[in-house]
Amino acid sequence: MYLLVEHFFAKTPTENGASAKDKPAVVENAYQYCMRVLRSHMETPIIPDETVIAEKITKHLTRREGSMDMAMRFTNLYQRLSSKSVLSNQWSSIYLLLALSQQADRLHGHQERLPLAASIAGPPVDHQESLKPGREGSHKHTREDFSAGTQPEKVARSDAGPAISEKDLLREVVYVFQGIDGKYMKYDSRNRTFAIDNEFQVSKPQRQILDKLAEMGWIYRLITDFVEKHKNDISGGLIRQSFCSALAREMTDYYRLIAILQSQIDPAGDEQQSSPLTLKRLYVWTLDPLKRLRSMGIVVELCTDLKGGALLSLIHNFVHHGDAFVSQFISNLMTEVSKPFFQTLARWVYEGELDDSCDEFYITQDSKTAMKDFWELRYSLREEMLPGFLDMSLATQIFKLGKSLNFIRIACKDTKFVLSRTQQGLRTEDLFAFGATRALATHVEFLYRQTNHQALNILVSTHKLKEHFQAVNKYLLLEQGDLTQYLVEAIGKELCKEGRHIYRHDLAAALENGIRLSNARYENPDILRRLDARLLETSTGDAGWDVFCIDYRVKEPIDTILSEHSMRVYRRLSCFLWKLKRVEYALGSTWKARMKLAQNLRQTSVYPDLQACLLTWAQMNHVIVQIQYHINFEALASTWADFCPCLDDINEDIDGILAKHKLYLTTLLRRSLLTLRKKGRKRAALQSIVDSILNFQLAHERLHRYGTALARGDMSCMQPDVRERSFDLSVVHANLPPLDDADEDEDEETLRSIREQLDECRKSFKESVDDLKEVLVEADADAFRGLIVRLNFNQFIWSGKAV
């Protein structure tokens, strides 16, 4: 290259007053200039598209020649070239030909062009001497032109201060680039910019270029202040520190640029030698660095209070910038900044460990959460800390994946599987980097299926999840009929007492006896150990039937599915089913004794009342039987048949089972409890039916006692064998709440009061049944159609007839 430059300048005459003794310096400057060009990494701003370049050449030939002949000839040659694979980089070759042609046109179009020596040598020596301060005639200044070699004299202004040479301005700019106040340019903190004082004589074009170059100064100060403030701030998190490190690394290239500029201003350390650098050239050279600084400055200004995933989201927004340069620069920056995030993500995916001491990951954990709430409350997802390059579906899958690993390790005590996953993570480190989101999503999907299969296998196979569900249905939802019947007969009388007078150990003993005397004794011993009798919190007036239920204790990891909330729902259903058993018990336990009493009181005045009560009793029994059938077969059995298959589905996950279990419980409550109420009613329709039946039982008991007392007066006229068969009241009084016989007088006033109470109970029962029909039709006619048809199979209840 040096020989080539020397050969070129040997044939070039000196111009602009340069003597022959200056030619070695000119050759040296030209050589240095050529070497800088060769070492530069500047890329063309044009997208490498052969079709676009061919069209430009065609238009260029058409405009220059004034005809289409040369354009047609080029098109023919280009087509022949495209059909052959002679050139390995065809676009670059065509672009070079176009650039050379345009350069030749510009050279031929200027008659008084400058030689290369003048464009590189800089201003003449005498002009440099005239710029030295303290020299006579320094008040005569020359105008600095943006052309590389010509610097005509500047017109002096009487009202302006001293003129500043371009070399001094270049030195000022270098100071400004480093955020330092120079001799002429000072930093204005209010306007956040460097500006040159108006008292100095600077041309308007120079001042405009200085204003544009000064932007790099205040952006540099903004970036360096941010880096110095946060690089050692541990509370800001690893991602912010990584961002500061990436900014510092980018500023290293900026410092290299400043060093090059300094060497161009003072070549070889000789201040007397003219500089090949001008303000215009400096402005052109700093266009790309200015873009980088602007990109970093904008991000720094916006992320002052952000950290973690929120900071990554902010930076990632600029990846989709319309400027390809900015987009590529931010992508490279994101690669460095996101490394701590992907390291935390890898540990979460492979080990289930959340290494986030600075609270910058989009998943958080509460270590104080009890094991029974492990799945629901231990880990949570924060959308505000979710990086923009992860969509919500992938982020949720990653969240569930790590949570499943923790569930296997902590709740299921299976560390072997987690260790095998940790070894697998060592072979896929390249997936956890910015730009590999699609491959990461595929890998996470594979890990997610594998982990969920392992978690469900542990729950279903090892810990017998399905058997626990079946046990809940048997003993809490009363599907074990023989055990339920035994408990009703054994503790029915005890449960008629007030809840505060009942002891749990008596009920637990009855439950143990029932298990030994029923088919429940063949159950898995682990299931039987979990059963217990329970009394709920009692209120004033609550009977034992209102607070008694069978309890089923679950432990980890089964309590993840059968959570405390779920068990409360099951206990609520169990209490309701026991209330129905109470009504069924009240209707069936005294039926035989009441029939005998009615037969022996045919000749008395209360016989019509007893006959009407028996008919009403049959109607109530019909309603209760149909409601129990609906609950047992159309609610419990059908709902369980819909839910049970998900426990055997290998593609199901824990969250899917929890969601379906929640739907299962909701459907059970809606179909079983029938907690629907008519507008204007304080109580649900089914609860009103139960209350009206229990009130009717009490009124009927009063009539029974009244009739018994009335018959005792005529007992002397009855046959002995009839007396022995008719008045066995032990069955009646053993199962119903006792009433004081002294309170009932055998007069017409007492009978009238009993009749009024019975009529009120019949009326209340009829209204409750009507309300139940209305709310069932309004709620879901399809779900309750069978119950409606069976309740009114003979069109009697809703036919308008009275009992």
Automatic annotation (TrEMBL):
Locations listed in the record: Cytoplasm, Cytoskeleton
A Gene Ontology molecular function term of the record: microtubule minus-end binding
Keyword terms of this UniProt record: Cytoplasm, Cytoskeleton, Microtubule
GO cellular component entries: gamma-tubulin complex; microtubule; spindle pole; spindle pole body
Biased composition, class Basic and acidic residues, residue ranges: 126-146
Domain Gamma tubulin complex component C-terminal: 465-796
Keyword Cytoplasm tagged: yes
Chief place of localization: cytoplasm
Gene Ontology BP annotations: cytoplasmic microtubule organization; meiotic cell cycle; microtubule nucleation; mitotic cell cycle; spindle assembly
Coiled-coil ranges from the UniProt annotation: none
Disordered as annotated region, ranges: 120-161
Name of a matching Pfam family: GCP_N_terminal
InterPro entries hit by this protein: GCP, GCP_C, GCP_C_sf, GCP_N
Domain Gamma tubulin complex component protein N-terminal: 170-460
Family in the record: Belongs to the TUBGCP family.
PANTHER family from the UniProt entry: GAMMA TUBULIN COMPLEX PROTEIN, GAMMA-TUBULIN COMPLEX COMPONENT 3
Protein name as it appears in the record: Gamma-tubulin complex component 3
Source species: Geranomyces variabilis
